Amino acid sequence: MAFTPRVGVYICHCGINISATVDVAAVAEYAASLPGVVVARAYTYMCSEPGQSLIKTDITELGLNRVVVASCSPRMHEPTFRATVSDAGMNPYCFEMANIREQCSWVHPGEAATTLKAKQLVASAVAKATLLQPLEVRQVPVTPSGLVIGGGVAGLQAVLDIADAGYPATLVERSGALGGNVAQLYRVFPTLEPAVELLNSLVERVTSHPRITVMTGAEVTAVGGYVGNFKVQVRRNDEVVEVPAGAIIVATGFEPFDPHRKPELGYGAYPQVITTLEFERLEAQDFTLAIEPKRVVFIQCVGSRDQEVGNSYCSRVCCMVTAKQARLVRQRFPKADVNVFYMDVRAYGKGFEEFYDKAREEGVIYRRGNPSEIIRRGERVVVRAEDTLLGEQVEVEADLVVLAVGMRPRADNEVIAGLLKLARSADGFLLEAHPKLRPVDTAVAGVFLAGACQGPKDTSESIIQARAASAAAMTLLMRGQVQVEAATSFIDEELCAGCGQCALVCSFSALSLHPIRGKMTVNQVLCQGCGSCAVTCPSGAINVHHFTFEQFMAQVDVLSDVTTWPVSVS
Amino acid sequence: MLQIESRQFAQEYKLFACIQCGKCTGGCPMAAKTKLNPRNLIYRVLIAGNGFDLEGREELWDCTTCNTCASRCPKQVNPMEAVIAMRSAIVEKGRVHPNVKTALESTFRHGNPLTMPREDRNLWADGLPIKPFEESTEYLYFVGCTPSYDPRIQKVAQALVRLLATTPLNYGYLGSEESCCGSEVRRLGEAGLFEMIVEDTTELYKNLGVSKMFTTSPHCFNAYKNDFPAVAGEKSHPMQVQHYTQVLASLIERGELKFSGSLEKTITYHDPCYLGKHNGVFDEPREVLSSIPGVNLVEMDRSREKSLCCEGGGGRMWLEGTNPGTRLAQQRIQEALDTGAQVLATACPFCLATLDEAVKHLNADDKLQVMDIAELAAQAI
Prior knowledge:
The complex is a heterodimer of chains A (about 575) and B (about 375).
Chain A: E1 7-12, H1 24-32, E2 37-43, H2 49-62, E3 66-71, H3 74-87, E4 95-99, H4 101-105, H5 112-129, E5 138-141, E6 146-149, H6 153-164, E7 169-172, E8 187-188, E9 193-194, H7 195-207, E10 212-215, E11 218-226, E12 229-236, E13 239-245, E14 247-250, E15 254-256, E16 273-275, H8 276-284, E17 295-302, H9 318-332, E18 337-342, H10 352-361, E19 365-368, E20 373-377, E21 380-387, E22 392-398, E23 400-405, E24 407-409, H11 413-420, E25 447-449, H12 459-479, E26 481-484, E27 489-491, H13 501-505, E28 511-513, E29 520-522, H14 532-536, E30 542-544, H15 549-559
Parallel strand pairs in A: 1-2, 1-3, 3-4, 6-7, 6-14, 7-10, 14-25, 16-23, 17-18, 17-23, 18-19
Antiparallel strand pairs in A: 5-26, 8-9, 11-12, 12-13, 15-24, 20-21, 21-22, 27-30, 28-29
Helix pairs in contact in A: 1-5, 2-3, 5-15, 6-7, 6-12, 8-9, 9-10
Chain B: E1 3-4, H1 6-12, H2 23-27, H3 38-46, E2 52-53, H4 68-72, H5 79-92, H6 98-110, E3 139-142, H7 145-149, H8 151-165, E4 171-172, H9 183-187, H10 191-208, E5 212-215, H11 218-232, E6 240-243, H12 244-253, E7 266-269, H13 283-291, E8 296-298, H14 328-338, E9 343-346, H15 349-361, E10 369-372, H16 373-378
Parallel strand pairs in B: 3-4, 3-5, 5-6, 7-8, 7-9, 9-10
Antiparallel strand pairs in B: 1-2
């Protein structure tokens, strides 16, 4: 018996997000008239429990075999509705989505043309739905181990969590020692505990853990495989080893801003001008200065919130680092004047505002204004600024100036991003899958981010993200199996000439020449369904399941049918 | 009342980006001694609702357009350009200072702001080995108004010509056909006249086939390099524009300019704002100086990005501003004296004039000589 599509179409109001600009009832009425459509309804929230029930009931009662939901972006709710139709016994790949929110109601003024466009998007989705094929969702076993790149606090915490949960884990650190940037610190805010004590206990637990392999002086040189089954090449000295891992956590950290890039501040030219990191070292060495400082000036936001050097972002930690160091100066040299030049004090964390209060109570003077330049006057330097609260240009002589240098993405982020096929945000830090909802995931399944490689963070925030990343990784490891993408590419061997151009463009090494048949074959596990091969193939021999040329053409044909649509809308 | 549409103004000059950090004012050389406060000015425009009154804002004429404010701004706001635009709004209402009026009229009539006759523009070059610019000439040497007429500054252009005569450089000049670049006209707020200058000059250079040029003054250099393309837009005539120190540096590098003599002097170099802070040309002038045999180049504390403005830019050669007190140039002479240098070198006609005046005012001319790099280099050939 020939296949007869029975399509159900569901138009979502999304509260007023869609219904305020799109006549949803008219769209539903129109959808009902389309070929193959058995039922069309409009409802307030399709993603809600009653909305989903509506679909399930219709599948059962009306014998639907294809479902179209016209609502938001598939990025938002495709997984939701695929699960809904699965629940009712339909293959999830027999579901299609029309995005009438981001691509229609949110971006158009809400006149007749807006509703018309919604109708067109629905018609196009229905045209594709009638041609959809069920696809098999397959599972492959997961390699039950984790790999963490970077041995700072975030990497240490992440590898420890994975190992504590019972899985073997490998920590790869490029330098010779563990601890990263925190190892450079003397005391931490807001507790003023010695950084070395916090770090040592963490390092000790990692290095002595029976399930953790620590590789220092080691570098990741290549990453193969896919979610659940990565194969990571690690080079140490001249030896390269391959480490299998089910999940990867990137915790490569940051590098401090180089204040040589602000020549007007005289760093490098005047010995009295140091960075906050150098201050930590001075403290750690018991502050052996040639002379006791009578006036110390701290300057905030050096290389942060500064488009001139390409760092638009706030580095988040410097306000508290400065407050901490200003207090340490006041405690060590009670007679010293301490001035902090700031633009805004961002004491947002738990205990931060209280810490800032203490700094002022202990006599640290906060002056609003970002100094413009530092010049020399005799043995001292002069900080030239506008005290913006006075509205006057001021010159403050100092015998020590501390620049609160911000955080920069590491120079080699590009390399690590290339190896793992990760994206970077405009600021150069590694990009999370979604800034609000998926801050730990990346766009690559099975690869997670922890710590300052994703953006400026303090120690506790790095630990928080590390624990989240390891939990996400463990979810994968504990499940033991991973679903592989069913919308992969496939070859029409009648048309394939075996030229191999598809293999050249494939980022996942999923295509190879069959040694006997002389035709290309697709590794269905490696293939991510990106479609590069399909558009490259000169013979048109490659299609992608769920995105076939036939399906695309049906969508386009519906839209280009001028008998259905007015040619121009005024 | 001298109102500007403040909202539109803030939009046009991107003042909404300002976070009131005060970097502009902290570094402003005039903020210390006048009412000029770029940060405060921006804030007042932002909170003015829809009209900002320029009446009585005499401090707008104090700005030397040294570009410190813009170069320090972390949010890429350009307070200097906003000041110039406010000046334009005042000029547009016909409120022009008498001195300025004369300079602008002279530029319009005679092609120079110095009220000098056009036909005399060429006198400085009498008997010098310099050719007119022709079709086969590679570089146009744009002399500029002050070097053409001012007896002290003429020596700079003359020295440069003598210097270049020892090199194979194929260059020529326009003689009395040359007209003011309009840099100071623009900075004095006469945007309309500047547009006219751009249009006429672009047409002239296009017809002459000028593709490479160099200037005596960093102000002319900046006008041709930056202001011309900004104003002319699509109609601009693409040219490689250099300052003469850049030309000399590359001649030296190619071995085409050689010094047979020497100059046993300790020299310190004052970065002109329009060369350094405006255009990032810090190295070439120093390369020229240090390649002169015998020269001991020492640096002042405030050099390169931190160079102190001489107060000669932004039309200040014609306007006193609100503070006729101690000139920045005098402070600068003191800084030069502190280095123990015998010569304060610079590479800008305005700097040369203001610093020369300051050194005389301080009775320090027996200790410190103010000279242009071209003059110093010419002494060693």
